[in-house]
Structure formats: structure tokens, C-alpha cells
Amino acid sequence: MAVATSSPIKTEIVLDTTLRDLYALDNDDDTSIVLVNALPTAEIQMIEAIPLSTKFAYQSPNVSIRDPGLLARLYLQVVPQLFGFIAGDMPLVLFDLDDVKDLDHRDHAIQIYNQITRSQRPQLAFVARPGDIKLSAREKIAILNPLDCLTFLPHTVNPDVHYDMLSKRTLALSTLPTPTSEVVDTILRSGRAYDERAFDIEVHRMTKGVRTRPCPFVVKMPQSLSGEGVFLIHNDSDRLHAIEVLGPELKRSLKLMTESISPVPISSIVLQELISSENVALAFFVTKTGRAILSSCCPQLVDQRGHWEGGFISYKQQDMYQLQYSGIIEVLAKYVHDRGFYGPMGADVMTDQQGNQLVIDMNIRVIGSHPLGFLKDHFSLRRGLHEAVLFFPLFLTCERKIFERKFRQQLLEGRMVITGWCHDNKGTTSVTSMILAAEDNSKLRTFIDEVNVYKMSG
Question: Where in 186-328 does DSSP place strands (E)?
């Protein structure tokens, strides 16, 4: 593994706590945890060393980015940098990119973590391929999503169990409070040979509810990534779009299942009641003994297609949220802990008209809004910046040095924190993640507008 070196920093960030601190709570185990941060893609291989997973298969039929190099920058660098921001002093492994000869993505990651006080910086290492990850006898890896190429390594949580808990089908059939749901499973069998006509007939059967169910409702694929397999059906136009996209994706999933010796649990869809209320992301940590420690409650920033783009936090409201959601957090923590999980996780929760808190989705890993909860002291208590927003992905029309020159004062004041950065392969545009903070919502909106000047359109 290539180990990163450090360089001078201008503004020091001290986190309220870190994942290393949280993993140590209620834990007498001598296991040392190595974070391996990489997110999967469903159909497009990002780098040569990470093949597409077929055992742990994923779905993203609505994905708008199909360039392997850009996907690699997003899911092997910027997101892992963001999620690793709260790691603390523990090993963190990131994967190198294929098409960057000068390895400038390493420099970007090092700059991200050099903002953090030295005692809380991750022990950053880069690898070209999974086989380069070397563990001692007492080390295990903690991952974001299960990947076939990492199964040879010991995990803190059984990857088969982890994968099942990420399933929207599993959530819909669980004992957790969720919106009213109907699960439509395939009647085809794994390991059997079927012709194209059989697949077409099965897709037509499985999507009957999508064609006939009264609006509004939601359609979910069981292992969709970043909302890219979730369809919000408000009208017949939404319905037609969902049918057009679901058909080929269901067919792909069915073929993958039937070609497998063992069942691949992606060949189903979930039809669910659409709840019209604020979607709040709960970010928390489940200790080794099952204790839940809340990090933050954040309203989410979601685009018109239902894709996650970030989250807001109001630090003065966190105590209220703590009381409001403490019950559902305890229920969620017990549910995952009973299945062998401990570590950081998140859940999307909505409240229906009767006041029932319903679990819309669970991410059994670090979530995008986690860093917001770890920066309360940095923003709110030390600087009086009580409102903050985290953006991801944020595509910019400029390179990093130009952006940082423009916002030099905000960076020095600590009201802007860059949590992920990678240039395109020409070094002229950037994909990023960052947090902006201000004294109140009005000033935050002005700050956002200033940053959006550099935002790529489309």
C-alpha cells in the first residue's frame, strides 16, 4: 500500500468525535479496524482492478453518469474522501484511479485530511487493487457496501448479512415501521435456462402494479444505489418513464439471477405508499453492545428525480430532533445489532399524517450527512455559524487552486470545509463535496449563491 504523507495546513479543524472514538466505546475486543472506502456501480466498471460485483449485485437504472473515469472519481475518490473525513486516527484505504498518470487524486485526498488536527487524521493509504490490502492477524475491514472483490478479507460485519440489510425488499418485509408496501418477487428460478420470451413475459407480469396502481406511489428496486433505482410516480408521465426504465433493468436482473447457481436477491420490486412529508436523515452510530449514539438529524437535499444531493443542518435544533427521534433510533439500532451489525449508519425517516415515524430507507454505513454532526463545535460553538449545508456531488467549472483563491477568506475563517475533491482527467473541471456554514439561513443562501457561480450547468 502506498502511504500518504502530510503537508502544512492553514486552518485546523477539530472534530467533535471520530469513528475511531466511537468504535472504541463499549468494546473490549482487541480487533483493529481498517476502513476500506469504495462505493460500487451497477453496470459500468470504473477501474480494471475492481470488476463489477455479481454476487453482491446493485441497480442504478436512472444513473445519469456513464463515463467510467468520472464514476471512478465519484465513487472511489470524492465519496470515500467525504466518508473518511470523520475517520479519526485509524487506517483508511482508498483506491487509485486508472487514467491519472500523476496521481493527483492522492494530493487532493491528502489536502482534504490535512485540514484536520493531526491527532484526528486518518492513516491514509492508497492501493491499486484489492490484493494490495494487507492485514495483520488482528485486523478486519469495515466497508461501505459489500463488494465481491473484497470478500477474501475478514470483515467487521458478515458481508452477506450486510448486503441483505441494505435491501429495500428486506426493509419492506421487516418488523420495522415502514410505509404500506407490496413486494413483487420473480417466479423464475436461479440456475435455470430461459429464453427471451420467458423474460419478457415475467417482466410484464412483475410490472403489472406499476401500470395499474393509482397515483401517487413509489417503485423501488431492492439494491438501488443513491436513489437511482427509485421512482416517484405522481402522474402518468412518471408511470411511463418508470415502465420504460424498469423493463430493461428487470430483464438484466432476471438474467443475472438465472445465470447464477445461488439466488441473487435483486429480482424483485417494491411498490410503496408515497408519504408527503419532510424526509429527515438520521445519522448515528451503533456500538458493539448495540447502544445508539446520534450524530445528526438533517433534512435532505434531493433533486426532482429523487437523487440525493446533500443535506442541511440547523445546530440549534439538534436537541429537539434528539428527543423527537430517539425512539425510532433505538428501534433501528436494535434491529441491526440483532443481525450482527455495529458501526456508523443512517436512516431516512418520514412522519405520516397520523404522526407515525416511518423508515423510508436504511444505509448501513457512513452516510453523506454524517460529517455535519461531527462539526457542531467547529461551526456553531466556536464560530457562531448555526446553519450549514453539505453538497455532493458538486460539479465545478474550475480547478481547485482557482476555487480556493476565490474563497480563500471563507476557507481561512472555517465557514467553508472541503470534504472531497477530484479533477477531471484534463485537470480543468472538478467534482467535489463541501460544507458551507453561516450565521443564519439568509446568509447561508447568499453563500450558496456565491458558490453556485462556479457550478456546472446540466
Answer: 217-220, 230-233, 268-273, 280-286, 292-302, 308-314
